[in-house]
Amino acid sequence: MGKHVGAFRSRAAEARFTEEYRRALPPPVDVHDVPTSFGTGRVYRYGPAEGPPIVLLHGLNTTSAPWGPFLEAFAARGPVYAVDALGEAGGSVQTAPFRSAADRARALDETLAGLGVSGAHVVGASAGGWLATTLVVHAPERVATLSLLEPTTVTSRYSSGVLWRALAAGLTRSDRLMRRMLVFTMGRELDRADVRLVFTAVRAYRPRLPVLAPPSEAQLRAVRVPVLALFGARNVVHDAVTAARRLRELVPHAKVEVWPDVGHDLGQFDDARRITDRVLAFVGPGIVGGAG
Q1: Alpha helix locations (H) across 123-271?
Q2: Of the candidates 59, 65, 66, which has an alpha carbon nearest to the alpha carbon of residue 162?
Q3: pLDDT tens, position by position, 246-256
Q4: Residue 262 domain-assigned?
Q5: Mean pLDDT on 173-180
């Protein structure tokens, strides 16, 4: 495998990661490995096989494991597809390099095409919100609605405090620095299987991704699908209030909400019932497949 694609650092590292992932991931109904131009995309299905699909896109290098608290409510409405992003730690295997955001959108679009998914209600958390928006910008045909949970690098960039801490943790692969990074971003330390898996992913996997740059103003103004965006006001990861204001300006039809009592942890699933209720209300029968 070439040096310009994401890969595990060693077979031993991959084995350690895979065992932890097996323990952290909610058992799926089905597992799909979908060939694309950039490698094989791993997708887990929960819920029934038929119905309007919900597609879940996780945060940077976090895998699909943290979606567990969301699955029961989402799967009660139809099939749920949790996608492990190509180029990041997880079950997907990258074989060709990404040169641009458009390449990442193409890989995701080809993954959904391979599953036969259309009319999808796409839900992206944190950096998964960036990927979801990138899909809508470059390949919107399969998307019915777009729900963004604390999306990063869509209308704002990461704060310098987060960037420096992430760089230090990534270069040293130190548990201590990774835990400090978590406390800084989440406001507290979390001891969960999916969080421990992220630490293992940082140590085990070497990602090779293009810079997560925000879409252009023109690209965002061209978005036509219904959009819901939830931001946490108590935020150190980025300027969520400014990000929300900019999204309202550039996508006037978007339903943009700033929740005052949370920070970036809104995108890390600590209040799953509140979030699933809001997303499901947004993707309700009145707008399924349409531009409400």
Answers
A1: 127-138, 160-172, 175-186, 193-204, 217-221, 240-250
A2: 59
A3: 999 999 999 99
A4: yes
A5: 67
113, containing H or E segment: helix 101-115
User: Is the torsion defined by CA of 35, 223, 98, 238 positive or negative?
Assistant: negative
- Please check whether residue 292 lies inside any domain of the structure: no
Tokens read off for 138? 């470059």
The total number of structural domains in the chain stands at 1
- Write down the pTM of the prediction: 0.90
Tokens of 178: 């990774």
Q: Is residue 67 part of a domain?
A: yes
Query: What are residue 41's phi and psi, to 5 degrees?
Result: -90, 125
Give residue 67's domain range.
7-282
Note whether residue 260 is domain-resident.
yes
* Bridge partners of residue 59, in order along the sequence: none
For residue 251, give the CATH number of its domain: 3.40.50.1820
Tens digit of each residue's pLDDT (9 = 90 or more) over 223-278: 999 999 999 887 877 888 999 999 999 999 999 999 988 867 654 445 788 899 99
Distance CA 99, CA 258 (A): 33
Cβ neighbours for 83, distance < 8 A, ≥ 6 positions apart: 41, 42, 43, 55, 56, 57, 58, 64, 92, 108, 111
Q: Encode pLDDT of 60-95 as tens digits.
A: 889 999 999 999 999 999 999 999 999 999 999 999
Length of the chain: 292
